[in-house]
Amino acid sequence: MDKRRIRSLFGLPIMGLALLHPLAGHAAERPLKNSVGMEFVLIPAGSFLMGSPDDDKDANRDEKPQHRVTISRPFHLGRYEVTQAQWEAVMSSNPFTLPRSNSFYHLPGMAERLRKPDNPATVSWNDAQEFITRLNQKEGHARYRLPTEAEWEYAARAGTTTPYSFGPDARNLSRYAWFDEDFETGSTHAVGQKEPNAWGLYDMHGNVWEWTQDGYGERYYAESPAADPTGPTTRSGNWGCVVRGGSWHVSGNGWRSASRRHYAPDYRGISVGFRLARTSE
Predict the structure, then answer these.
(1) Looking at residue 1, what is its pLDDT?
(2) Which CATH fold topology does 3-279 show?
């Protein structure tokens, strides 16, 4: 395979391919589509360095210590964030009929910019769990779930060790992410409009923060299990649940692969959505 062909497959410079998981191509070649049109990418089992190294000046304390984590079983992950159209197909109502946890939704023009079928559904962690319950019932199994925090970062990195899935240079972020917008003119965007990471996943950086299954612990990394960590079980009070990936607006500056934030499980804003994991058969 020549260099141009490799670049066209993964959208990365040749020098970046050495960092990819050896099954990166396999993960990008086997999509699965469910009854409401959601596409899933097979994520291979493997191990990676989770978190940020000590010399990363942009990293927060809760991203350390960097530690090796093994994902022992392959799983499927949504190619895109869950859209409003997909939410309606399962829940029979638009997610923006639910009350919001902040006032930004009522800014002039915001509702019109947000409420589009292919834009992400921005909902609470609790709402996402209800969606998962109903989708599992609709399809007659219990395979759908939120990804763990470790699964999310593993999939976002797609074999890389750099701050972003595309490398270390933040100047390239606009190719992969909707980010740094204001509240007067900005909003979420239709999924899949930017470039994907090497495993064929779109909007892992930016657009909306994405809920994970895990509760948040500031110092959890110091005691995290080495294989298939699931995070603290407490999901109440100030700690809440972990979100990943950053969002479309300027204050959502967590676009690096290791960035973490947390919200209460009942928080329902305009910049937090989710993508689904699916336990492989």
Answers:
(1) 41
(2) paralog of FGE (formylglycine-generating enzyme) (3.90.1580)
